[in-house]
Design a protein that fits this description.
alpha/beta, TIM Barrel, globular, eight-stranded parallel barrel, 41% helix, 3 domains, Malate synthase G - maily-beta sub-domain, 741 residues, Malate Synthase G, Chain: A, Domain 4
């Protein structure tokens, strides 16, 4: 084993191990050799040889795909700048996109043939969490969010309002507690109704002759309207400690425990309502983390290893007490006939690899070039997943023996085909059957959404997931059409034609290509984690749209959002939609999808409108970037300009930076105006973070502050960034900061 020292991108002296011509950072080498490979049945030298072969084969193709992206952008920019194409003609524009190969011809109809997909993905609709894999505590919380307390979710959020407002969590409020109980009983009445009565009047629960009996205050005993929804219990039949129901494939547990304080105010001694919540969770290596070098990547991979082995733990200190968090086990019940019943205790885990753009110094080529990070992610995360597939434990991630990888930021069918071919090669080198690795396609780039059917075809044997990423999709819309004109105000973008066409078309094509009963059709994130009342009111639109999963920002949000899937039978909606689609002649019309969201009348913008738009964009950009650069925090609740906490990641940053670039390019803003806003908003962001002991203020030293420099880069160099992505500039500045700290 040959070792040598080389100064890495983070400024440290990292030892490297040469394996078949590639220079592997010692941190990653040791993880793979001593923690990952043992127990997989994979020979170490065979693995490193396979890695070298895969990098040799796929790196040149990866580079060519990126070159194709750049060439398309050059051609589109030139078309918009060509005066002969003015005034703009939609039909002419679309034909141009066909002529250059940006839009590909749709082939014959087909259905995906994916096999061995777990029911959480294929047949049961519910919420999906997305969490940064770099943070072990968040990763554990997400994995354990399969079950959640409805009482806690209601009591600790604004879903139930009262006069105490934000103070309700400090001490128990009996009035608020009663409202929580009443809300939960009303929910049960809606989704598992009793025949001739209400849970509000229940005083006891018993099981007799495999049937649930609920005794009312009047003494009357009732059964369920649909008795098949009673599926299990714990404890004695005459004195159960838990009653288990199933509705729309999702489980509900009534927890009965007279010793609990809350149960003392319930005639039936109900202590809680436990909902099966986050059926699946995406452990993210991409937009929600800051992983810029070998050290970071090794930490990310180690957390995925802990999840796949089932031994990941995190110790927290709270009130001078150490709390060890670990993965939950499965849940055990008895069926109504008193047979054993086991239900999964953890969310089914996907891992989101990075896209095709970025490289990482965890592995260097012979010429000291960083290798494509997406290729490395695919290989290492799949290798780690063998611990789940080959484990003898009864507690598994995939009970169907599959690995679930989400691939983000792919542009068009050729890039999907590349990922499909990469996964096939990875399967071969790991001794896995073809299509063991299931692919999730993020429909978040313009060339993917206009060619979605053909993108799905390129992965039709392994596709398990499509999801609209409307934030990145907006960023790509702005960047792709940068030369077309000034864009609409960001807050009004949601009203543009292309967004509704994009969201609807995603579901339509997903259903028409056979995803129903085989794969997830997903919708995007609720981005305001402290406004759960608004989420409960509005996010029911996602299951009603025919999507069988939608993203939520927290376990609490998952428990609240899952109520929508009890009220809406997504399978029935999808069946109805398929019938409607069969007679819809407009299914292939791209006009709305390709309607560029241009500002309708620039003259209608007042100076104050322009300043407000700029300040809003700059404040959000700075608030996110300063945490990314200084703290390595890739996703967090960031206060907006109105001090409303919003979930921010690189997708929202892409929109803000590209929108400012666009208005600068078209003369709505000046460089001086933007710089002035940056300086003012730096002080605003500093003030918003004044209680954060780890926060490093910007405003006191703008000239030297690396995070502030990153923000300037994103705006004034943003137009030239590939596809308007923020990663290259963020990584460059984060590496710079790590080198001096």
């Amino acid at each position: 084993m040959k070792k040598y020292q080389q100064k890495s991108t983070d400024g440290t002296m990292n030892k490297r191990v040469i394996k078949h011509g590639y220079k592997v950072a010692e941190s990653l080498y040791n993880l793979v050799e001593h923690e990952v490979l043992p127990g997989t049945g994979i020979d170490a030298e065979s693995f490193w040889q396979s890695m070298a072969n895969i990098l040799d084969e796929f790196t040149p193709i990866n580079q060519q795909l990126l070159a194709t992206r750049a060439e398309f952008q050059v051609q589109i920019d030139a078309w918009h700048l060509d005066l002969s194409n003015q005034p703009f003609n939609q039909e002419k524009y679309q034909q141009f996109l066909v002529d250059i190969g940006y839009i590909v011809a749709e082939q014959e109809d087909f259905s995906i043939t994916t096999n061995y997909v777990d029911e959480e993905v294929a047949t049961v609709a519910g919420p999906q969490l997305v969490v940064p894999l770099k943070n072990a505590r968040f990763a554990l919380n997400a994995a354990n969010a399969r079950w959640g307390s409805l009482y806690d979710a209601l009591y600790g959020t604004d879903v139930i309002s009262d006069e105490n407002g934000a103070e309700v969590n400090k001490t128990y409020n009996p009035v608020r507690g009663a409202k929580v109980q009443a809300y939960a009983r009303s929910f049960l009445d809606k989704v598992i109704p009793l025949s001739g009565g209400s849970y509000h009047d229940a005083v006891s629960y018993q099981i007799a002759d495999a049937r649930l009996m609920v005794t009312m205050k009047s003494g009357k005993q009732l059964h369920l309207v649909d008795e098949t929804k009673f599926v299990g219990f714990n404890g004695a039949q005459q004195n159960p400690s838990a009653i288990l129901f199933c509705n729309n494939g999702l489980h509900i547990e009534i927890k009965i425990d007279p010793s609990m304080p809350v149960a003392k105010t319930d005639p039936a001694s109900v202590a809680d309502i436990i909902l099966e919540s986050a059926l699946s969770a995406i452990q993210d290596c991409e937009d929600s983390i800051a992983a810029v070098d070998a050290e970071d990547k090794t930490a990310v991979y180690r957390n995925w290893l802990g999840l796949m082995k089932g031994d990941l733990t995190e110790t927290l200190e709270k009130n001078d007490v150490s709390i060890v968090r670990k993965l939950n086990g499965d849940r055990a019940y008895l069926t109504p006939d008193e047979e054993p019943l086991t239900l999964p205790g953890r969310s089914l885990l996907f891992v989101r690899n990075v896209g095709h753009l970025m490289t990482n110094d965890a592995v260097l080529t012979r010429d000291n070039e960083k290798v494509p990070e997406g290729i490395l992610d695919g290989l290492i995360t799949s290798l780690i997943s063998l611990h789940d597939l080959r484990s003898n434990s009864s507690v598994k991630n995939s009970r169907q023996g599959s690995i679930y990888i989400v691939k983000p930021k792919m542009h068009g069918p050729d890039e999907v085909a590349f990922s499909n071919a990469l996964f096939t090669r990875i399967e071969a080198c790991l001794g896995l059957a073809t299509n063991t690795i299931k692919m999730g396609i993020m429909d978040e780039e313009r060339r993917t959404s206009v060619n979605l059917k053909e993108c799905i075809r390129a992965a039709k044997n392994r596709l398990a997931f499509i999801n609209t990423g409307f934030l990145d999709r907006t960023g790509d819309e702005i960047h792709t059409s940068m030369q077309a004109g000034a864009m609409a105000r960001k807050e009004l973008m949601k009203n543009e034609k292309w967004i509704s066409a994009y969201e609807n078309r995603n579901v339509r094509i997903g259903l028409q290509t056979g995803l129903m009963g085989k794969a997830q059709i997903g919708k995007g994130m609720w981005a305001i984690p402290d406004e759960m009342a608004a989420m409960v009111e509005n996010k029911i639109a996602h299951p009603k749209s025919g999507a069988n999963c939608a993203w939520v920002p927290s376990p609490t949000a998952a428990t609240l959002h899952v109520m929508h899937y009890h009220q809406v039978n997504v399978g029935e909606i999808q069946s109805s939609m398929l019938t409607q689609f069969s007679s819809d002649e407009s299914a292939h019309d791209l006009t709305d999808l390709l309607t560029i969201p241009l500002l309708k009348d620039q003259a209608e913008l007042s100076k104050q409108d322009i300043q407000n738009e700029l300040d809003n964009n700059v404040q959000g950009l700075l608030g996110y970037v300063v945490r990314w650069i200084d703290q390595g925090t890739g996703c967090s609740k960031v206060p907006d300009i109105n001090n409303v906490a919003r979930m921010e990641d690189r997708a929202t940053l892409r929109i803000s930076s590209q929108h400012i670039c666009n208005w600068l390019h078209h003369g709505i803003l000046t460089k001086e105006q933007v710089l002035a806003s940056l300086k003012r908003m730096a002080q605003v962001v500093d003030n918003q973070n004044i209680t954060d002991a780890s926060y490093l203020p910007m405003a006191s030293n703008l000239e030297e502050n690396i995070a502030f420099k990153a923000a300037i880069d994103l705006i004034f160099k943003g137009k030239e960034q590939p596809s308007g992505y923020t990663e290259p500039l963020l990584h460059q500045r984060r590496v710079e900061l790590k080198a001096v700290n």
